Amino acid sequence: MTRLFYLTSVSKLATIEEVSVARDSPVAIAGVVNDLVERARRRDGAAFRELFRTHVAVVHRVIYRLSGPGNDVEDLVQTAFVEAFRSLPDFRGDALFSTWLTRIAVRVTLRARRRRPPFALSIEETAEPAGDGPGPERVAAAREGLAMLDLVLGELRPKRRAAFVLHVLEGHSMEEVAAILNASVAAVKVRVHDARRHIERRCKTRPELADCLQQEGNR
Description:
By secondary structure, this protein is mostly helical. Helix 5 crosses helix 9 and helix 8 runs antiparallel to helix 9.
């Protein structure tokens, strides 16, 4: 089973703004999800599609934040879901399905990052003209902040970046992050602390980055 589920056309790369505002569907509650998982185990196509629909936003967002801009983000999303659906017999319900799926998405992304060359990014490449819409200065500042966030996240070591993204930006507890990354809670705390220190140093010279981080953490 390969490439059965598509977020968008493979030629369309989601923008920073689209990824940042993506939210989980309210349908994705434990009881409903558990029923969908059981149906998917029985090869119910509708259940596969609904699991994809209700979880694709968070998977896309996590992969984007871990990998940064690149033409392979969509491919990584597809790969994460294909691996998850193939592994459904191994899902025992010890954790939320969303946490289990996030673990697979992180593994897929970190594996891909080890294979691909560093992605060179500049603010000029990611920030788009403000256009003629309302509040152009505010829109431009927000886009610059998001571009700067991509740059700073890209400076972090992969494990630190993963811990910071999952705990600070995605809101998982330290225990959840430890389970997702297959690490100890103590190790996760150190990684988050080190990532925070690095980012705080960068915020001193780029106040728009601090504003962006606050907004992202409150989503």
